[in-house]
């Protein structure tokens, strides 16, 4: 942490773009000095905080600097100018304010179980105020006969309305900083409240902080750009977001701060993209090669228009001389794997190796089997190139590969004899070396950590490979714009012709017997069934159906040996999980009882029924992914959503949407609107250059698009942010330089 006014002057490390010539309208980056910013001061130096409170604020809310506190915004506001009558209070109300006189006060109970009860009265009725903490101090502060402004949340005890730990102030107290009568309600925890950092105390600390920093807060958006985007000044926005004088000022402040977050997020991502496209050379692959042509012509079906379009985009990237970094989105069953294999054959046709990395062994085996079928028409001549001559090799590398197989694979990759390899995390182990890796395909990439994916980048020893990341999880456009803002995005938005839709049905517990009879009929016809549960073991706090009891119920309703049931969940070892999944995939089990671990992985064309227990527990995108496990063959398929008879209005809306559409992107958009973006992409989300404190990817899509358009216009006119007018933007971006991983290089 940095003490106030004791900053060291150091050379900026944020050098963007080429070395600049000295021009009157530009800045010399080699001489740019990182001037001190008061907002980087450690929060412990704010009067009223100190080391102990600073440590608690850091641990509980992540507040370590002045900036962190100023950018911790209220999540709602209470109009403190409104005083209610006691007789009008309801226990369902949020925070309210009354003006009342203390009639009695008494301490009830002894020692740790004691509480202070203060009875107050106005002209309409009486109310008890209850304090469990700081009893001695509150007892000495409150005097019978005195009148107070009381602020708190009504609650009920023994059928009577009361308030627990309200705030009390004399009517003459100055309660409204900066003329604002609206009090912000800030995020908090029990530990903060117990340490005396109540909402009132937090608000006072923010007020003191703003008083110290107001004249020193620098503008981070150029005046011309701010005027063009109708933004109030940064100082005014920060003041109004904490202490709004009126609703109009609050809305203006919210707009400015939301735009600021989204704009710098997009500016950073687009800058990474610009740097990669101009600074990162790629392997030039001028031809497609005979292997691609032979496989393409031998396909027993036509590619969809969307598949052809995506292959053209990938082909253009790979022959451009720039490194490809492309995200391929496609719904379950849209044909992404075929696109990946054909792309890999382009690399092979240009004398390079390609790898396809999958998150599970089952999925890796499926990809490998698909690969062998697609490559069956090839002859040795189709694999010929100038470096390795005649002959070719494909391989599968997983955690289950035997030592002898591993040695042969390692030797084949180093020599170049293995041209295509499919694998799991085993591909990124240190001992795996490629002779000339030209393309890395990463399937369901969000299942891999950032550090794991980055290892593929380092396996070439020179020019980086082209990278194609794939996901079957439909990502709303606004979210993809953020999570993958520095990548090119391709979408396969149509399914292959002839694929039958999955009929989705909502059923409650009263229909269970009929559902079981339906399953028996499907099994009798030679089909297989998934039954998915949201929990592994019973939870005392949640009464949703769980795998433990569900498995017992299923085996009782479908007894062995007439019916064969396998079980898969996340608590099993990888070996046990793979064994049970394999048994189901090979038809040695009729029913697979599982948690959502099978959302990605097992592909069983013979499975025609997906039963999802406690379906209200799942989000729309997850329900859609689970539904995609069936309908992969030529038979009619069904998804049965089992719920309790009573479910919330929001859950009912999700279930109804599932029954009305199979469009994954429509469902993803609705899911984000209802549930928020959440942590959809794990480490990718947490690694973004700007953490969103006030903007919402789900609710502020229109503003996000405007911010991205504005950022693109700025970079089009000044790619290196060299103009003096753009110095505030350059300086703001420099704050993210050290803490952000460049995802364009590790996707």
From TrEMBL:
It catalyses: ATP + H2O = ADP + phosphate + H(+); Couples ATP hydrolysis with the unwinding of duplex DNA by translocating in the 3'-5' direction. Residues 317-492 form the Helicase ATP-binding domain. InterPro entries: ATP-dep_DNA_helicase_RecG, DEAD/DEAH_box_helicase_dom, Helicase_ATP-bd, Helicase_C-like, NA-bd_OB-fold, P-loop_NTPase, RecG/Mfd, RecG_dom3_C. GO terms for molecular function: 3'-5' DNA helicase activity; ATP binding; DNA binding; hydrolase activity. One of its GO terms (biological process) is DNA recombination. It is an enzyme of class 5 (isomerase). PROSITE patterns: HELICASE_ATP_BIND_1, HELICASE_CTER. Keywords: ATP-binding, DNA damage, DNA recombination, DNA repair, DNA-binding, Helicase, Hydrolase, Isomerase, Nucleotide-binding. Gene3D superfamilies: Nucleic acid-binding proteins, P-loop containing nucleotide triphosphate hydrolases. Residues 525-673 form the Helicase C-terminal domain. Coiled coil: none annotated. Its EC number is 5.6.2.4. The keyword DNA repair applies. Belongs to the helicase family. RecG subfamily. PANTHER family: ATP-DEPENDENT DNA HELICASE HOMOLOG RECG, CHLOROPLASTIC (PTHR47964:SF1). Plays a critical role in recombination and DNA repair. Helps process Holliday junction intermediates to mature products by catalyzing branch migration. Has replication fork regression activity, unwinds stalled or blocked replication forks to make a HJ that can be resolved. Has a DNA unwinding activity characteristic of a DNA helicase with 3'-5' polarity. This is ATP-dependent DNA helicase RecG.
């Amino acid at each position: 942490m940095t003490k106030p006014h004791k900053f060291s002057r150091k050379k900026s490390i944020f050098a963007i773009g080429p070395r600049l010539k000295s021009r009157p309208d530009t800045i010399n980056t080699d001489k740019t000095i990182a001037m001190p910013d008061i907002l980087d001061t450690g929060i412990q130096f704010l009067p009223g905080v100190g080391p102990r409170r600073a440590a608690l604020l850091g641990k509980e809310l992540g507040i370590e600097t002045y900036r962190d506190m100023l950018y911790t915004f209220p999540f709602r506001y209470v109009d403190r100018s409104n005083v209610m009558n006691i007789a009008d209070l309801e226990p369902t109300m949020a925070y309210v304010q009354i003006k009342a006189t203390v009639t009695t006060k008494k301490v009830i109970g002894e020692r740790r179980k004691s509480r202070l009860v203060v009875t107050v009265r106005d002209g309409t009725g009486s109310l008890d105020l209850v304090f469990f903490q700081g009893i001695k101090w509150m007892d000495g502060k409150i005097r019978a006969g005195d009148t107070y402004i009381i602020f708190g949340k009504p609650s009920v005890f023994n059928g009577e309305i009361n308030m627990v730990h309200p705030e009390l102030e004399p009517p003459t107290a100055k309660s409204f900083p900066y003329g604002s009568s609206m009090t912000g309600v800030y995020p908090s925890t029990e530990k903060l409240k117990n340490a005396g950092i109540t909402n009132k105390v937090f608000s006072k600390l923010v007020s003191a902080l703003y008083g110290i920093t107001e004249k020193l807060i620098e503008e981070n958006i150029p005046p011309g750009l701010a005027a063009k985007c109708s933004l109030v000044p940064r100082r005014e926005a920060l003041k109004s977001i904490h202490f709004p004088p009126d609703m109009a000022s609050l809305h203006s402040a919210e707009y400015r701060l939301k735009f600021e977050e989204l704009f710098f997020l997009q500016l950073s991502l687009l800058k990474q993209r610009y740097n990669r496209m101009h600074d990162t050379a790629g392997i030039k692959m001028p031809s497609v090669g005979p292997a691609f042509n032979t496989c393409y012509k031998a396909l027993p079906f036509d590619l969809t228009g969307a598949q052809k379009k995506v292959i053209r985009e990938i082909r253009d990237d790979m022959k451009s001389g720039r490194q490809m970094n492309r995200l391929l989105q496609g719904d379950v069953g849209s044909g992404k794997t075929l696109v990946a294999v054909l792309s890999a054959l382009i690399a092979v046709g240009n004398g390079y190796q390609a790898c396809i990395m999958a998150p599970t062994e089952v999925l890796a085996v499926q990809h490998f089997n698909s690969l062998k079928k697609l490559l069956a028409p090839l002859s040795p001549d189709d694999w010929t190139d100038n470096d390795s001559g005649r002959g070719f090799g494909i391989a599968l590398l997983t955690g289950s590969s035997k030592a002898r197989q591993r040695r042969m694979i390692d030797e084949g990759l180093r020599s170049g004899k293995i041209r295509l390899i499919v694998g799991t995390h085993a591909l990124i182990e240190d001992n795996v070396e490629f002779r000339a890796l030209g393309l890395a395909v990463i399937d369901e990439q969000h299942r891999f950590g950032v550090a794991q994916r980055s290892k593929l980048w380092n396996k070439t020893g020179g020019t980086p490979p082209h990278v194609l990341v794939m996901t079957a999880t439909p990502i709303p456009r606004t979210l993809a714009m953020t999570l993958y803002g520095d990548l090119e995005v391709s979408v396969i938005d149509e399914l292959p012709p002839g694929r039958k839709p999955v009929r989705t049905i909502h059923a409650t517990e009263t229909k269970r017997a009929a559902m079981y009879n339906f399953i028996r009929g499907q099994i009798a016809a030679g089909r297989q069934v998934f039954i998915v549960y949201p929990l592994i073991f019973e939870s005392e706090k949640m009464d949703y159906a769980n795998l433990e009891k569900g498995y017992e119920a299923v085996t009782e309703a479908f007894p062995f040996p007439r019916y064969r049931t396998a079980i898969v969940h996340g608590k099993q070892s990888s070996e046990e999980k793979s064994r049970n999944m394999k048994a189901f995939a090979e038809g040695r089990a009729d029913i697979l009882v599982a948690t959502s671990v099978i959302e990605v992985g097992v592909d069983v064309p013979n499975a025609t029924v997906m039963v999802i227990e406690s379906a209200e527990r799942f989000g729309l995108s997850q329900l859609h992914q689970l539904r995609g496990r069936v309908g992969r063959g030529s038979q009619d398929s069904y998804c049965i959503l089992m719920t309790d008879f009573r479910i919330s209005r929001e859950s009912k809306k999700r279930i109804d949407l599932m029954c009305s559409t199979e469009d994954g992107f429509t469902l993803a958009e609705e899911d984000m609107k209802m549930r928020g973006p959440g942590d959809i992409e794990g480490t990718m989300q947490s690694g973004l250059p700007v953490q969103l404190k006030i903007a919402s990817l789900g609710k502020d899509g229109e503003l996000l698009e405007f911010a991205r358009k504005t950022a693109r216009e700025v970079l089009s006119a000044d790619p290196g942010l060299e103009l003096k007018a753009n110095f505030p933007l350059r300086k703001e971006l420099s704050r993210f330089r050290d803490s952000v991983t460049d995802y364009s290089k590790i996707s």
